[in-house]
Design a protein that fits this description.
This protein has 292 residues and is of the alpha/beta class. It has one domain: 3-Layer(aba) Sandwich (Rossmann fold), CATH 3.40.50.720. Helix 3 packs parallel to helix 4, helix 4 packs parallel to helix 5 and helix 7 crosses helix 8. The two termini are 19 Å apart. This is NAD(P)-dependent dehydrogenase (Short-subunit alcohol dehydrogenase family).
Length: 292
């Protein structure tokens, strides 16, 4: 069902991973989806990954939506302003904003105590993973204000309850959750909802490469890390965001940080393989329940 037909979305950081899964599932629900990022067929970003915004946009269109790739460095306010002006000129509205820019993998220093961390890397991670979200909201929310009922989704990693094992990483992921709360408070009177959404163990393209597997034989990665058997595809969190965007009562959740696994049980969707992975239940040592 194309529940989002006529709606316009921007997935900032939609090149790969959760961003790609979200863009495709919004497209499957009928939305027009602007897919922005730095990796194109002409030039890779410093992430040096093969995925591109053009590929994501083509997947959006193939799923039933209208994918529009736009190269944009979201750390550059001028480029984000130009992107917002393009959306304004072409569609005159923006209903869904997904802030999924990350770019912190090459900056992460796992196993390094904070008193030995590279401060330049920590600053760059903050600028890429948090400031980019703020810049994007700053330049796109004025367009969203034209059409009340919009939704802003901040994609994070975790609920912020436990320390994530590395100070810069923990700091930026927790800050993204706080961005959802802050935006929700300031936008409440304007009829725009802002939430945080976190996936569980995300089976992204990079994670598949890390385990030396493909989506076809991903379970083999469980030999290296048994937790990988409880992982989810990017489509799972994508379906969570699409379900929220189609929910006429989504405003009641404004300011909350939500999970792919809880939303799956509430809205009744599954991952692409028919499973319904529940990361919290897995971490408590409880068995995965079959989807109903």
């Amino acid at each position: 069902m194309q529940t989002l037909h006529g709606r316009v979305a921007l997935v900032a950081g939609g090149t790969r991973g959760a961003g790609r899964g979200i863009a495709v599932e919004l497209g499957a629900a009928g939305a027009t989806v602007y897919v922005s990022g730095r990796s194109t067929r002409e030039q890779r970003s410093d992430m040096d990954r093969p995925e591109t915004i053009e590929e994501t946009a083509e997947l959006v269109t193939a799923a039933g939506g209208d994918g529009i790739p736009v190269r944009c460095d979201h750390g550059d306010p001028g480029q984000v302003r130009d992107l917002a002006e393009r959306i304004t000129a072409t569609h005159g509205r923006l209903d869904i904003l997904v802030n999924d820019v990350w770019g912190g993998d090459p900056l992460s220093e796992w196993g390094t105590p904070f008193w030995e961390m590279d401060l330049d890397k920590a600053r760059a991670m903050w600028e890429r993973a948090v400031f980019t979200h703020l810049v994007t909201s700053r330049h796109t929310v004025p367009l969203m204000l034209r059409t009340p009922g919009g939704l802003i989704v901040e994609i994070s990693d975790g609920l912020g309850r436990e320390y994530r094992g590395n100070l810069p990483y923990d700091l930026v992921k927790t800050a993204v959750n706080r961005l959802a709360l802050a935006q929700a408070e300031e936008l409440r009177e304007h009829g725009i909802t802002a939430v945080g959404v976190t996936p569980g163990f995300l089976r992204s393209e990079a994670m598949l490469d890390h385990f030396g597997v493909t989506e076809a034989n991903w379970r083999d990665g469980g030999r290296t890390d048994p937790h990988f058997l409880a992982s989810e595809t990017p489509h799972y969190v994508g379906r969570a965001v699409a379900a929220l965007a189609a929910d006429p009562a989504v405003s009641k959740r404004s300011g909350q940080v939500l999970t792919s696994w809880d939303l799956a049980e509430e809205y009744g969707f599954t991952d692409v393989d028919g499973r319904r992975p529940h990361w919290d239940r897995h971490m408590r040592g409880e068995p995965e329940l079959p989807a109903r």
